[in-house]
Amino acid sequence: MEINIDTSVGEIVKANFKTAQIFDKNKIDFCCGGGISLDEACKKSNIDINQLVPELDALVKQSDPDSKYIDGLELNELCDYIEKDITLMQVRIFHFFNKNCRSFAMFMVKIIRSFLK
Fold first, then answer.
1. What secondary structure, in 3-state letters, does 78-109 show?
2. Theoretical Cys-Cys bridge with 108: which of 13, 35, 42, 93, CB 3.0 to 4.6 Å?
């Protein structure tokens, strides 16, 4: 994926969820506010886009099998996956993020719960 100033924050996180850590660190909303361009997000958070892009670019270029798997599901498959495996998925996500990036466990639980409403 080629990141530029018009790329949406959500597209970047979709390409590699690990970029969410960078957005969180820079106080950029990648969840509900993820539909805005990187340029707009950086302006809102008073972040130098020229420093942020190389950091994001380096992560996006790394392989993220989890992001690729989820992105490859059709909408009905994703819904079935969430519906059938919600408890197991919450546990897996929690343990993965607790081990690798503890602060994101709460974001994932929030996102999963929003699907259940």
1. HHHHHHHHHHHHHHHHHHHHHHHCHHHHHHHH
2. 93
pLDDT in tens, 73-102: 888 888 777 777 666 767 777 777 667 666
pTM: 0.63
Which amino acid appears at position 40 of this protein?
E
How many beta carbons lie within 10 A of that of residue 78, not counting itself? 14
With b meaning 16 or more CB within 10 Å and e meaning fewer, what string describes 19-55? bbbbbbebebbbbeebebbbebbbeeeebebeebbee
| 80 half-sphere exposure, CB direction, 13 A CA radius | 5
Rounded Cα gap, residues 65 and 31, in angstroms: 20
> Which pair of tokens denotes residue 104?
């994101």
Q: Which of 40, 38, 73 is nearest to 53 (CA)?
A: 38
